[in-house]
Amino acid sequence: xxxxxxxxxxxxxxxxxxxxxxxxxxxxxxxxxxxxxxxxxxxxxxxxxxxxxxxxxxxxxxxxxxxxxxxxxxxxxxxxxxxxxxxxxxxxxxxxxxxxxxxxxxxxxxxxxxxxxxxxxxxxxxxxxxxxxxxxxxxxxxxxxxxxxxxxxxxxxxxxxxxxxxxxxxxxxxxxxxxxxxxxxxxxxxxxxxxxxxxxxxxxxxxxxxxxxxxxxxxxxxxxxxxxxxxxxxxxxxxxxxxxxxxxxxxxxxxxxxxxxxxxxxxxxxxxxxxxxxxxxxxxxxxxxxxxxxxxxxxxxxxxxxxxxxxxxxxxxxxxxxxxxxxxxxxxxxxxxxxxxxxxxxxxxxxxxxxxxxxxxxxxxxxxxxxxxxxxxxxxxxxxxxxxxxxxxxxxxxxxxx
Length: 402
Hints:
Largest sheet: 8 strands, antiparallel
Order of helices and strands: HEEEEHEEEEEEEEEEEHEEEEEEHEEEE
Distance between the termini: 20 Å
Structural class: mainly beta
Strand order of the largest sheet: 1-2-3-21-20-22-18-19
Shape: globular
Oligomer: single chain
Strand content: 35-45%
């Protein structure tokens, strides 16, 4: 994955190259088998704002040769086009994933991290936790949802919606300190966050900017960083740094009260950091998970879904007790660009047969890829609304094989 990150970064400027061969918008097409247990189709939808066009990959997880996994470029704070992520990891299909830290216009001079709002798990390994709700990028959340909401697949091979909360601690000679974040682009006020080799090389300044209720608030002026290796403090700094973090090393970043606590640590002191994610509902470990927000639960749309703002959208539906999954993406070609409202997306997912459905990042990020029968690489099946693929931090991949 590390070599894949370098490869994908080098190819980032070629975003959109995989659009050659994309299915034409408005084309009438029957269901096509992509792999055993995986099919693709496209169809028209009449939305309140005008016509749109949907692309759907259906995945039958009852087929033992098919599984879902996280597409990502080898680091939390990194991005690449969905087609390149899919080909680098050998996926036969996929869609873009969670909303992410795409810009920092409100914090001049601060590097945007490209990191996602919500939690992420790959191959059972926890990559990151959720940012505070007030720091998230994306449209307003429906009532009762949060950045901790996830779509995932458990070790039982069933897809489900859940919520995931960070758990962990920083054990020091003076006592236990609470852990407020893990590889996040935003930390709660007064907290301490942990950054590992999964983060990448992007600057760690952004996690100390904004407040729990205002993403655009100024960056904190009271910060401190401590580097821990082999359960010992090996370095300290008055400001968050940048650069790759070696495996086995954890960088602790504190803001306000968290910074004051970290200043009490000295080089050579023993410090042990533990972290994980606790699921709100399932007792079954997750093999993969990513963030977004639910729009359909138990066959019913969530209360308060927006039915005024239409846009190009990406969503995932779950049916048959988690054994059937729909990857859904709207076309961004000019004639279809008005898209659907979130309420209309929920209705569309229910019409496919979904009992639960989950909204992912939309607009210029919406991308659905799938291999043609017999092909060794994916093609982009929808037309991204920016006329080229947008590099994204993660996605849902469909994998076929033993």
